[in-house]
Amino acid sequence: MAAALGVVASHPALAMTSQPYGRLADGQVVSRYELTNSHGLKVEFIDYGAIVTAIVTPDRRGQLANIVLGLPSLDAFQRYNGTYHFGGVVGRFANRQVERSVVLDGKTYQVPPEDSPNAVNGTPDGFDRRIWKVAPKEAAGGEAAVLTLKSPDGDQGFPGNLTVHVTYTLTDRNEFRIDYEASTDAPTVVNLTSHCYFNLGGNGSGSTDRDLVRIEADSIMPSDAQGMPTGSVRPVKGTPFDLHRLTAIGPRLRGADPQLVAAKGFDMNYVIDRSNATAGAPVAAAMLHDPESGRTLRVATTQPDLRFYTGNRLDGSVVGSSGGIYRQGDGIALEAEHLPDASNKPSFFSTELRPGQNYKATTIYRFEVDKYRPE
């Protein structure tokens, strides 16, 4: 790990450094960490929520910029991440669960929030609002850190003491790799993801409408008027959701399809094509390209599903780390995960985890850039 943030803690072998980022009301100190590679890429994260606060990459002119949406302070993350989940690791169960319930071995468990008919992203007290333990890790061809969280039995209504390890690795291949692992002492369900919002033009550069997207999926899961999964799967062929080819986002998200109208843009789960995949190996899931900056993001994952969300609920009420406000469409989330409500759908990939089993998932974000093109 790099030492660019000012050394207040260190690991002699790996030169891991951290800097105080803020303090919670109970006195706990929150720290910020930094990963760098030989090409000048940088990933910054904090131990509160395992939140990725910055990913710094060059554009085609060599100008560096942070390409994820962030917030200016710990107080801001505490205030807004119960709603927007900026950059955090979401759990125990990412995305939505219908009627706030999970059935395991014939027993029904109710999950929060009590004032809502459905559960979403661990709200109001998900993993992106907890302090994680951070330790350095040796990584060939890169820098890495392991973040650990222990979730007690009954946490968010779920059974079992769950131990979670998330490894952040920045490689010299310009890949930011996230490896998830979890184990339990009682039958439970788990579904983890990272909720980064990307803007390849740079944080604070405005709308992502000009970006081009491709998603390797033949079907989506539709949602109802409340954004909850219907449980059915819809082929994308011949619909606005067919993104097999690089497609400009702006014209598509203003389409008349009821799903787009209800969500005010893209906010749906794509079932990733894993027909030619090796078991347990990441497959290409998505590509995002900004023609103006020349930056490209490629996503590969072992997960069966990708939530494509165009920041539709950003309403101008949140001031970002760049000092500007975040408006609708200013960031794009590509959340590799299991399908929403999968814990209650036997036909979906199982999210059950039992004692003696290990939950494992990997998502890789690869950063590329076009060569300089003169004006």
Features:
mainly beta; Beta-galactosidase, Chain A, domain 5; nine-stranded antiparallel beta sheet; six-stranded antiparallel beta sheet; 30 strands; disordered N terminus; EC 5.1.3.3; Gal_mutarotase_sf_dom; isomerase
Question: Could you explain how this protein is built, in words?
Answer:
The protein has 375 residues and is mainly β. The chain has one domain (18-369): Beta-galactosidase, Chain A, domain 5 (Distorted Sandwich). The protein is built from 3 helices and 30 strands. It has a 9-stranded antiparallel β-sheet with strand order 11-12-13-14-30-24-23-18-21. A 6-stranded antiparallel β-sheet has the order 17-28-25-22-19-20. The chain has a 5-stranded antiparallel β-sheet with strand order 1-2-3-4-5, with no helix packed on it. The chain is globular. The protein starts with 17 loop residues before the first strand and ends in a 6-residue tail after the last strand.
Helix content: under 10%
Helical region count? 3
* Quantity of strands, as a count: 30
CATH fold-level topology: Beta-galactosidase, Chain A, domain 5
Number of domains: 1
CATH class: Mainly Beta
Q: How is the biggest beta sheet arranged?
A: 9 strands, antiparallel
Low-confidence stretches: 1-15, 114-119
CA(first)-CA(last) distance = 37 Å
- Label the overall shape: globular
| CATH architecture assignment | Distorted Sandwich
Q: Label the structural class.
A: mainly beta
Q: Classify the beta-strand content into a percent band.
A: 35-45%
Query: What would you report as the Rg, rounded to the nearest angstrom?
Result: 20 Å
Mean pLDDT: 87
Strand order of the largest sheet: 11-12-13-14-30-24-23-18-21
